[in-house]
Specification:
Blueprint: E1 5-16, E2 19-28, E3 37-40, H1 41-47, E4 57-58, E5 64-65
Antiparallel strand pairs: 1-2, 2-3, 4-5
Length: 71
């Protein structure tokens, strides 16, 4: 089963090997929200480059923010 990201639920920056690393909390297609995982942004963008994940960021009120460029 190949998982695909549905939405970015949250963002954080961690310190790893002497560098700051941006991570996203990802909700995966076909899995419940409780199965969301923290993933490195750079790796996600590389693996899912055609999905424009930066345009699938959940807002604080629970909706998904989609820029006008994506429409």
């Amino acid at each position: 089963m190949i998982l695909k990201p549905v939405v970015v639920l949250d963002k954080r920056t961690i310190h790893e090997n002497g560098a700051n690393v941006e991570q996203w909390l990802i909700r995966w297609e076909g899995l419940p929200p409780s199965a969301a995982t923290w993933e490195n942004k750079s790796e996600l963008c590389r693996r899912f480059s055609s999905m424009n994940l930066e345009k699938k960021v959940q807002s604080e009120d629970g909706g998904i923010v989609v820029s006008s460029e994506a429409q």
